[in-house]
């Protein structure tokens, strides 16, 4: 892969591929954040205008921190600096803008044979590239994780200071926030992150399949569902840009797969693919004809699939500041119905946090996590991490707390 940074999107990951023997398999052409929006819930002036666009208005690169060894990043760290231009065109440098390192992430896989109690345990090491963005009051820690089983994970860790307002002595938050200290009101709000994912799963032409889990229609007691326990997964290929606008559905455990319909897995008999899922899929609670929904119409759907267009990078429009919302992802997608099946496509995926602040978030907020994962889904022949050996103490230098003894991850 290539790692880079620009003033607006912050870290950009390009040309992600996986080498399997001599074969290099293409995965993703480009992954970056497209827009981030924080709409607040208070409908009264001046807060009705409070809706930060942290990518388009602030810039994930421009607001990047200088990362500090041992504080922001621990371990054996490689840093990248980032060079930007100021308002006069002069170059300025952010030292240590991007961090790259490996870290232990618990157990990748393990099995204990219950008959003889022999076990085999492989620890997970993940490659991390990260940055920290300070957008006024909030600090967003941004992480791209690459795991040995092929999993990609994008995680946001939000911390920093709540944006608060002062109440008079007899005023209350009125159901639109909570008091985190006497007369200090912290309003309800949401943090949305819209990722632009340009896939190339085993080639440039890809499709998106929606997966919904449903119980079988056959009634309990019928021959095809005698005890009523049956359920199945329904796969729907999204064919055009109207079908390509879709929402999460907890009732059907819905997720999406980016697939290449020209290449099938020999055992699973399904197109090779990459599954995208998140447990942080909040709907936009502002009304869909609100000011914020006009500027950020892309928040009305969890997923958008569009044909690749090199000019369509920013879901909130190229020039976001004080923008009316005329050239957003929602507007350009709805201006014309286009075919998206087995084409060079772009996937726009929104996740986020609905933040009803707690008293414990004040005066500085402990980290709140959200993000999504992409996992190979009948892409590899079998578990691609089988080539990783079992771990032992000579690798990770673990010791007993109360004795000088060595252990091994193979018991007996
Ligand atoms: Cu918040």
UniProtKB/TrEMBL annotation:
Q: Start and end of every Copper amine oxidase catalytic domain?
A: 1-386
Enzyme superclass (EC): oxidoreductase
List, alphabetically, the SUPFAM superfamilies matched.
Amine oxidase catalytic domain
Q: Which UniProt keywords apply?
A: Copper, Metal-binding, Oxidoreductase, TPQ
Output the superkingdom of the source species: Eukaryota
* Listed InterPro entries: Cu_Am_Ox_Cu-bd (IPR049947), Cu_amine_oxidase (IPR000269), Cu_amine_oxidase_C (IPR015798), Cu_amine_oxidase_C_sf (IPR036460)
Query: Any coiled-coil ranges, and where?
Result: none
Q: How is the cofactor bound?
A: Contains 1 topaquinone per subunit.
Which cofactors go with this protein?
Cu cation
The answer to whether UniProt assigns keyword Metal-binding to this entry is yes
Q: Which reaction does it catalyse?
A: a primary methyl amine + O2 + H2O = an aldehyde + H2O2 + NH4(+)
Cite the post-translational modification comment: Topaquinone (TPQ) is generated by copper-dependent autoxidation of a specific tyrosyl residue.
| Enzyme Commission number, as recorded | 1.4.3.-
Q: Which family does it belong to?
A: Belongs to the copper/topaquinone oxidase family.
Subunit structure, interactors included: Homodimer.
Q: What is this protein called?
A: Amine oxidase
Q: Which organism is it from?
A: Mucor flavus
């Amino acid at each position: 892969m290539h790692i880079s940074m620009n003033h607006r999107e912050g870290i950009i990951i390009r040309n992600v591929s996986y080498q399997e023997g001599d074969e290099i398999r293409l995965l993703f052409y480009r992954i970056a954040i497209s827009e981030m929006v924080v709409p607040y819930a208070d409908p009264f002036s001046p807060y009705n205008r409070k809706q930060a666009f942290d990518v388009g208005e602030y810039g994930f690169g421009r607001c990047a921190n200088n990362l500090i060894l041992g504080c922001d990043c621990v371990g054996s760290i490689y840093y990248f600096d980032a060079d930007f231009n100021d308002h006069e065109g002069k170059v300025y440098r952010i030292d240590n803008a991007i961090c790259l390192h490996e870290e232990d992430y618990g157990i990748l896989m393990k099995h204990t044979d219950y008959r003889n109690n022999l076990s085999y345990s492989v620890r997970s090491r993940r490659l991390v590239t990260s940055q920290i963005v300070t957008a006024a009051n909030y600090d967003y820690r941004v992480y791209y994780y690459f795991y040995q089983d092929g999993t990609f994970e994008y995680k946001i860790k939000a911390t920093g200071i709540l944006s608060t307002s002062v109440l008079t002595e007899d005023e209350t938050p009125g159901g639109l926030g909570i008091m985190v200290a006497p007369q200090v009101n912290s309003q309800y709000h949401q943090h949305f992150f819209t990722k632009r994912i340009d896939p190339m799963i085993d080639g440039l032409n890809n499709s998106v399949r929606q997966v919904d889990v449903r119980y079988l229609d056959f009634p309990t007691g019928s021959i095809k569902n005698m005890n009523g326990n049956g359920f199945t997964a329904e796969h729907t290929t999204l064919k055009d840009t109207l079908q390509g606008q879709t929402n999460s559905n907890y009732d059907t455990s819905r997720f999406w797969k980016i697939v290449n319909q020209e290449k099938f897995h020999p055992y699973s008999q399904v197109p090779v693919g990459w599954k995208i899922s998140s447990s942080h899929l909040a709907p936009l609670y502002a009304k869909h004809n609100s000011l914020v929904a006009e500027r950020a119409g892309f928040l009305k759907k969890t997923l958008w699939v569009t044909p690749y267009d090199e000019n369509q990078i920013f879901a909130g429009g190229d020039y976001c500041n004080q923008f009316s919302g005329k050239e957003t992802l929602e507007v350009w997608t709805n201006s014309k119905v286009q075919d998206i099946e087995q084409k060079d496509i772009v996937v726009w995926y929104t996740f986020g946090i609905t933040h009803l602040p707690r008293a414990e978030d004040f005066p500085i907020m402990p980290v709140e996590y959200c993000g999504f994962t992409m996992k190979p889904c009948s892409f590899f022949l079998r578990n691609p991490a089988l080539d990783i050996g079992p771990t032992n103490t000579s690798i990770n230098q673990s010791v007993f707390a109360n004795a000088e003894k060595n252990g091994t991850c193979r018991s007996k």
